[in-house]
Amino acid sequence: MVHVEKALTEIHGAYTMINQQFVKNALEPFEYVNREDDLGEEGLRKAKESYRPVMLYERYVASEK
């Protein structure tokens, strides 16, 4: 599970490289990577969709009546 990524936005492809290297070096025995929720942020959603996810889950909110 990836909680936080940080890169210099002026370096094109920096986030892609971080993701690629993380998967290559830390997750070799695993088939899937959990990229967590996009927090409703449009840019973050688009970035995460660019990795072509194989699964997406509906978001639900529980509240007391």
Automatic annotation (TrEMBL):
Residues 1-62 form the Phosphatidylglycerol lysyltransferase C-terminal domain. Pfam families: LPG_synthase_C. This is Phosphatidylglycerol lysyltransferase C-terminal domain-containing protein.
